[in-house]
Structure formats: structure tokens, C-alpha cells
Design brief:
Strand order of the largest sheet: 3-2-4-1-5-6-7-8
Structural class: alpha/beta
Number of strands: 8
Strand content: 5-15%
């Protein structure tokens, strides 16, 4: 069992509320798509395809879902439109299960003092990267872990200041240098301090620049190589943070970052303020990278472990 991986009643209510705009948008479109229909025919399937694409599920994933629905209808011979919601719910959950989107229970950390679990966080500016780091630090600390943060986004003074503020709020140390310092040097100092002080978790913030892909790739590689001088297995996880409210743009960001570095997990933020929650389904399917966390609000505990069953259940509730 990973840390903070359970779904209490309160967390389920946060999830239901956070997905409410997506749900209203999605089911409003479905209701219009099947208006006047009593069976799931070709017209309904065509309309369903349009609904999924315009709900930011993505074209490739949409085609998979529609194909699965079509095969179920053919196998069961007769299905009514009133059964469509349950059918969609089943097939989307099954698709996520088959495509390496199992419930990963957050970061299941085999931590020992002085040999910390290292998470390098990547993502473009404005996606909620630093906020996600702060919330993760808060939750790890609640789980009894000693946490260190590294301010390796040295290209923006605001990024360092924001991380320092989160460190103050959460009461965890932040290792930083002057603006413009070598990010790899900051990462090195962070790990050195964490090891010396028996920390169990280290989270490294990085610069969110995509305009120069080669430069980004080199920088992230350098950070990883320098950290390995202290901890050969570092980083244990490369977490890509995506803004769910940007819809298809989140797909493009995922493409660019997975080319630039070896992303091993995803966090999708700002789902509470958007009707584009379908992007979680598409990204989970297309990139075969586990979605570990979803952001559903501004509060400390509004970063939740992604559970495909709970997510799909809330979407179709």
C-alpha cells in the first residue's frame, strides 16, 4: 500500500466535485448525441466518436473506445441507448487497465534515512509544477517522512521564491542557490544535504522550458548524471506535471517531454476548473506512463492519487 493512497469519503467527495464540470459537459454532449434514439446504431456510434474527441479524450483513444463499444453491441446483439453509459464506463475502465494505467498508489516508497527516494519534477511553466511539489512534500511529511526540496529552476527568480514559500508553509528545508546558478549544482547540493541529514524523500524542481528541446534534454540529463554521483539510483522517478485544463496542448507537452527525458510518471493538475477531464483518459492510454496524481483544487490535500476505478466511477456517477 502506497502512502495516502486510500480514498476516504471526503476524498471521494473532492473527486466528484473536481470532475463535475467535465461530467456536465460530457453527459450533456452524450444526451444530445442519442436524442430520439432507442438503440445503439451507426449514427449513435458516429455521434459518440464526436463527443469523445471534443471532450479531449484524443482521436486515437476515441477510436479504440468506439471500436470496443461497437464490438460489445455486435456481441450482445441488442443494446439500448440507456445502457450506453454503463457500457462506456466498463470499456474505459478496461482500456485503462490494459494500457499500463493500473492504480499505482502514488509513490510506494522503500525509503531509509540517508538513502532518500529522489523525484525529479519536470513540466512547462504555469502547469502547477511547484504547487504540486509543495503538496507532495506536505503529504510525504504527513506520512512521517523527512523531506528535502531542491530549487533547480534557477532561470526564474519567481520559481525559487515560490518553492521557498512552499517549504516554509510545509515546514521542510529548501536547498537553493543564486538565480542563474547551474541547476545540476543545486541538485547535487540538495542530495548531499539530504543524505547528510538522513532525509527520506528529495523532490527536485526543474526549469519549465520547451523552446530549445536539445538544451532541455542536455540540462535534464546533466542533472540526472550529477545526482548519480551521490546516489547511483537517482532519480528514482521523473514526474511530468501537465495542466489538464489545456486539453490537447497537454498531449503535445507530454510528447515533447517524453522525447527530452525518460518520464516515468504523470501528475495532471487543475481538473477542478475545467471541462477537459477526458484528457486523463487519452494521456493514460497513449503514453503508457502511469498517472500517479491528479490535482482537484487549491487546498493542500486536493492532490489525489489517481485511481482509475474511482475516476471513471466519478465521471459516470
Amino acid at each position: 500500500m502506497g502512502f495516502f493512497s486510500f480514498f476516504s469519503k471526503d476524498k471521494k467527495e473532492v473527486l466528484d466535485k473536481g470532475l463535475s464540470k467535465t461530467k456536465e459537459n460530457f453527459f450533456g454532449k452524450i444526451a444530445r448525441a442519442i436524442a430520439g434514439k432507442t438503440t445503439i446504431d451507426d449514427d449513435v456510434l458516429d455521434n459518440l466518436e464526436e463527443v469523445l474527441v471534443t471532450s479531449d479524450v484524443g482521436v486515437d483513444t476515441t477510436l479504440k473506445i468506439v471500436d470496443r463499444v461497437q464490438k460489445r453491441v455486435a456481441r450482445d446483439k441488442f443494446m439500448t441507448t440507456s445502457e450506453l453509459n454503463n457500457l462506456l464506463k466498463d470499456e474505459i475502465a478496461a482500456l485503462l487497465t490494459e494500457n499500463n494505467s493500473l492504480d499505482c498508489e502514488g509513490f510506494d516508497l522503500p525509503t531509509t534515512p540517508g538513502n532518500p527516494y529522489v523525484i525529479m519534477v519536470v513540466g512547462v511553466n504555469g502547469v502547477g509544477k511547484t504547487t504540486t511539489i509543495g503538496k507532495l512534500a506536505h503529504q510525504f511529511k504527513k506520512a512521517g517522512k523527512k523531506v528535502y526540496l531542491g530549487a533547480a529552476d534557477t532561470f526564474r527568480a519567481a520559481a525559487v521564491e515560490q518553492l521557498v514559500e512552499w517549504g516554509r508553509r510545509v515546514d521542510v528545508p529548501v536547498v537553493k542557490q543564486n538565480m542563474g546558478a547551474d541547476p545540476a549544482s543545486v541538485a547535487y547540493d540538495t542530495l548531499a544535504s539530504a543524505v547528510a541529514n538522513n532525509a527520506e524523500v528529495v523532490i527536485i524542481d526543474t526549469a519549465g522550458r520547451l523552446h530549445n528541446k536539445v538544451g532541455l534534454m542536455n540540462e535534464l540529463t546533466k542533472i540526472k548524471n550529477v545526482m548519480k554521483k551521490i546516489l547511483p539510483d537517482a532519480p528514482n522517478d521523473v514526474l511530468l506535471v501537465l495542466d489538464g485544463s489545456t486539453g490537447q496542448n497537454a498531449f503535445e507537452q507530454a510528447k515533447q517531454f517524453t522525447k527530452a527525458t525518460e518520464v516515468s510518471s504523470l501528475a495532471i493538475t487543475k481538473l477542478d476548473g475545467t471541462a477537459k477531464g477526458g484528457v486523463v483518459i487519452g494521456i493514460s492510454d497513449q503514453f503508457k506512463i502511469p498517472v500517479k496524481y491528479i490535482g482537484l483544487g487549491e487546498q493542500m490535500d486536493d492532490l489525489q492519487v489517481f485511481n482509475r476505478y474511482e475516476f471513471v466511477d466519478s465521471l459516470f456517477k
